[in-house]
Every structure is written in structure tokens, then in C-alpha cells.
Amino acid sequence: MRSTVQLQRPGGGGEADGDGDSEPGVPCFCWWRSLPEYEAGAGSETPKAANTRTATARMRVVREMERLAAAASESIDELRHRLLTYKAGDLWFPAGGITKQDTDIPPVITLLLLGFAGVGKSSLVNLMYSVLGRSGFVPFAHTSSPAGKEGRTLNLEEHNVLRSMKSGFCVFDSPGLDYDHISEGFDEVSHWVEDGVRHRQLCHISSSSTSSSFPSFPSTSTSTSSSSSAAAGNRFIRRRVNCAVVVANLSELHSSLASGHLQPLDATRQLFYHPSIRESCNDAPILILTHGDELTEDERIDTRVALCDYLGVAETSGVYDILCLNEHGVHIDEFEPVTAYAVAEAVYRALVVADRCHPPKPGLKDWLLVALSWAMCALSAFFAFLSCFCSKLAKLNRDYQKKR
To answer: Where is this region: Disordered (predicted)?
Structure first.
């Protein structure tokens, strides 16, 4: 069992990490403490960057990471408790002149993870299980969604990461979008956000990508299992999406910026500003960056700054750099407090966004309009049937007159 590493400043008398490669007093997961901006925060000269704006943004990111590190050692248990006791609507605040009783709050808040293939959405869900749904005998609860080629998720999968029937929120893992079929993927996202999501719901983008991978070998068993999975999914409750969480591969975006091939960056921006997400949530989605450990410290912070600048969002508001796997290739747990706190705070911020976006309940006027529209539809259908019936009678009468 690994012991918790105390968060200390360099030179503060702490010990080196177990491999002996890290700077004394710098835990291996506090990657930002090797940057010159961290020493600048201690009172030394401010490091020079390409421009003042980039230097300021880098400094803000370093201070944000320090805030997470400080909160991780003091507030992680309190934040866990808030999430464990959370009920839908607990974070609601008055706006628009209506009361909470007049707000249409669902029984369970739904968070939808969105992103392109391979960004680490399923690994993020497993990390949430580890951080939020701790159990003495089952440290991890891996996602159980049926996977296709290369382990890609095929169906929407609902996860109660708190492992409690009293949980006030759930997280939906979605199939990864494909850069070669962006328009089809965005149509699917619109369907999820506007019409709702259902556990084990079969997705068109996953089935089409699977079939295109094997064009010459159609499988009857695959189609049968897909139809049975879709039939099973129809029996689960459909949930309204309350907040979207966009997951992006930081290493892939760095390669995109370095090579000048900006398709991944442009596609991420289109997903982040998708109209259906903005209309339903009335706010920017939460942004989670993964695979940052594959970059150097300077590349990691510069790519984050460049991405946030390209998206037009602040580098430290609603953006989280989360490492889902450690250097041994296994999921990080609560013994790395910065990552654990970042995951918990990302979920908590998503719940805050969700509770701000509940629409008002339909009033008497709305129900009357619905009833009136149904009555008009029924009346038009009746007259259409009557017109068709009379036209057939007239035709029969003409045929009868000709025979006479």
C-alpha cells in the first residue's frame, strides 16, 4: 500500500520520490513545481516567455494547480461528503423570479461525457469510481459497456459512481466520436442532448464505424447482439442531459499544434461550442484534459494555454488536467490527492452548472396550449379521414353510374 505524499515546496526538507529522480520535496504528481513559474511565485524574477500574455497565463495555471494541491490536503474529505449527500437541486439558487418548487428539477442529474475516440472517457469513469465510490473490497469498478475493435465503447453506459441507490447524479459514458465522420457524430450528440440518453442505448456512430472496419465480412451474430442490446436498452429510463463534460487528449492536441494539422483542435472547438450543448446547458461545458503525462512540463502547460486561448475560455475556470493512469499503467486512486481532488471538484462544478440550468415547470397556460394543439391535430386527422372516405364513396358512385 502506497503512503500519502505530503505536499511541500522544493527545498523545504522533504524527501525525494521512491525512484530518486524527482527533485527533493517534489512529489512525482506535482509536475508543475519543476516549472520556472513556480520559483517565480516564491519571489524570484518572473520567467520570460514568448510574450507577456502567455507568461501571465502560465502563471495563472501554476497558481491554479497550487490551489488544487492545497485544497487536496485539507478539503478532499469534505468535498467527498458533499457529493455523497448531494440531491438533485441542492445547488440551485434563485434566478428569474421563480421559486425552487416551480423549477423542473429531475430526480437524478445526468452528466454526459463527450469526446473523440481514445481521449480516455472510460478511464475517467473508472477513476471516478475509485475516488468517489470507495469500497474496502472493490477498489475499482471498471466500465462494463460492450467494446468493439481496439476496446472502443459501443453503447451509452450509465454509471452511478457513488454506488448508492440514493445518489443524486449519474455519469454517462459515450462512444468516442470519429474525425472521419464528424457531421454524423455531431448529429448523434444533438440527439443525445435534445432527446435524452438511456442506459445501453446503441449508438449509430459506433455501429457505423464498426461495420466500416469490416466491410467484407458481415456478421449475423453481431447484428443479432446489437438488436438484442437495443431491445434491452429500450427498457431503461431515458434521462435528460443536464450538463456536458468534454474530454480532450492533451498529447494529441499538442501534436496537432506542432504539426500544423489542426483537425483535432478544430473538431474539439466545434464540439465544445456545439449549439445543442449551449442551448440545453446555457453554459460552457466542463473541459477535462487527459494524457498530459505524455508531454514535458513546458509542453503540457503551453498546450493547455494554447487550447484555452483557442476555445476562448479562461485557463483556470472549469478546466482540469487529470491523469487517469500513473507511470505503472494502473488507475490513480485517492493516494494521489491532487488528481483525486481535481476529479471531485470537476464533478461538483458540473453539478453546479446543472442546477443552474433547470427550466421552469410548465404552467396552466402551457398545458392548455398542449391540449389545444392535440385537439387541433385530432380534428385535422378526423377531417382528413372524412375527406378520404367521401372521395372513395364518390368514386364508387361514379363507377356505379357508368355501369348503369
So the answer is: 1-22, 207-229
